[in-house]
């Protein structure tokens, strides 16, 4: 009996506890959710506040930075104006200037000569050229000279057996010169044909073609500067002959300038140019053509002050073959670059490109 009562008591307690458990769980769960929700709101509020503060700080810093950038931009603009004021000047040491071929002069007066450019060739001096033939028809028994050989007047050139007398006679050089053509060999029949051409190359002709528009400016006796296309070889001469006829094909007039050629620098067949002086002027200020350069679409000369070189815009007057008249922009006595001006221009353009970059 006692055991039965004990069993019933325990069973009753278990049933009571089973009924009470859902209420406890629900209460604990509600309390926990309420606590968590309150904590989450506070965290969100704090985070939002901090985010807002950070945004405010960022906004303040951004505004401050923008202001500083604006100030920096203003200062940079001021710097550009200063650089532009200095732009164009370059400094070159004396050693570097010498090494690059820069030369300077003091501005002063000079003659500006006007010339007419010509184009032509070096040809044989026809007054000192001989076409050698045999006196009598016959057979060539021997040839005694070769092409390119120098000969003296009276020197034996060939031996010919006459058809009439069957005697052998000699063909001799009529003048000193060089064998430029040999048109015969042993066994040939002469029959009046040209056997040799001999030319005295101690003088040659510069043969120019004068266009109709220039003919009126050119007269016999006028000075002419004869030069090669690269202008490394130059020689002064004068027009010694002006043909009275016009070339039928080119409609040009032939002008001849005789050149001494003892050293053989002028070879027949060479293409040449010439400058005939047709007028000149004593300019109060003139510079060599090499002193002028184009910079930003202006003609300039470079003025030297100490080790600095600065471009100076100038106005050009009469343009000659070697010199150019300067009518404004340059003063008498100023030191300017007379040779090697392209070196200064290259340095200035290099500096400008670096500045823009």
- Our Rg estimate from Cα atoms comes to 51 Å
Which sheet architecture does the biggest sheet show? 9 strands, antiparallel
> Helix share of residues?
25-40%
**Tertiary shape:** elongated
Q: What is the arithmetic mean of pLDDT?
A: 81
| Tally of individual helices | 4
The percent range for strand residues is: 35-45%
Distance between the termini: 112 Å
- Class inferred from helices and paired strands: alpha+beta
Low-confidence segments, given as residue ranges, are: 13-85
SSE layout and pairing:
Blueprint lengths: L1 H85 L3 E2 L2 H6 L3 E4 L1 E17 L4 E5 L4 E6 L6 E2 L4 E7 L5 E5 L4 E6 L11 E6 L3 E8 L1 H4 L7 E6 L5 E5 L2 E6 L6 E8 L10 E18 L4 E3 L2 E8 L2 E6 L1 E5 L3 E6 L6 E5 L1 H16 L1
Antiparallel strand pairs: 1-19, 2-22, 3-11, 3-16, 4-10, 5-7, 6-9, 7-8, 9-10, 11-15, 12-13, 12-16, 14-15, 16-21, 17-18, 18-19, 20-21
Describe the overall structure.
This protein is an alpha+beta fold and 357 residues long. The protein contains 4 helices and 22 strands. Strands 3, 11, 12, 13, 14, 15, 16, 20 and 21 form a 9-stranded antiparallel beta sheet that branches. It has a 4-stranded antiparallel beta sheet with strand order 1-19-18-17, with helices on one face. A 4-stranded antiparallel beta sheet has the order 4-10-9-6, with no helix packed on it. It is elongated and about 90 Å long. Mean pLDDT is 81; it is low at 13-85.
């Amino acid at each position: 009996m006692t055991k039965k009562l004990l069993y019933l008591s325990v069973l009753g307690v278990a049933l009571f506890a089973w009924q009470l458990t859902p209420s406890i769980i629900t209460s604990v769960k509600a309390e926990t959710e309420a606590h968590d929700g309150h904590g989450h709101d506070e965290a969100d509020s704090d985070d939002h506040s901090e985010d807002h503060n950070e945004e405010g700080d960022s906004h303040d810093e951004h505004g401050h930075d923008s202001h500083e950038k604006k100030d920096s931009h203003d200062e940079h603009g001021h710097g550009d104006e200063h650089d532009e004021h200095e732009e164009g000047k370059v400094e070159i040491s004396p050693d570097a200037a010498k090494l690059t071929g820069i030369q300077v002069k003091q501005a002063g007066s000079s003659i500006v000569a006007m010339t007419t450019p010509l184009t032509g060739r070096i040809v044989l001096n026809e007054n000192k050229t001989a076409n050698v033939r045999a006196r009598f028809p016959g057979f060539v028994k021997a040839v005694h000279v070769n092409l390119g050989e120098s000969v003296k007047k009276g020197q034996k050139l060939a031996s010919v057996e006459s058809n009439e007398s069957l005697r052998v006679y000699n063909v001799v050089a009529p003048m000193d010169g060089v064998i430029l053509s040999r048109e015969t060999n042993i066994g040939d029949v002469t029959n009046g044909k040209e056997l040799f051409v001999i030319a005295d190359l101690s003088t040659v002709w510069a043969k120019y073609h004068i266009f109709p528009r220039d003919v009126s400016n050119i007269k016999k006796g006028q000075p002419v500067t004869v030069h090669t296309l690269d202008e490394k070889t130059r020689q002064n001469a004068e027009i010694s002959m002006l043909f009275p006829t016009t070339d039928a094909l080119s409609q040009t007039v032939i002008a001849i300038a005789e050149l001494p050629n003892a050293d053989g620098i002028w070879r027949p067949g060479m293409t040449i140019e010439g400058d005939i002086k047709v007028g000149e002027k004593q300019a109060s200020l003139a510079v060599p053509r090499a002193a002028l350069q184009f910079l930003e679409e202006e003609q300039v000369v470079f003025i030297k002050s100490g080790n600095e070189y600065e471009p100076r815009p100038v106005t050009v007057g009469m343009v000659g073959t070697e010199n150019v008249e300067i009518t404004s922009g340059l003063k008498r006595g100023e030191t300017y670059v007379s040779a090697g001006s392209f070196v200064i221009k290259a340095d200035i353009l290099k500096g400008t490109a670096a500045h823009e970059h």
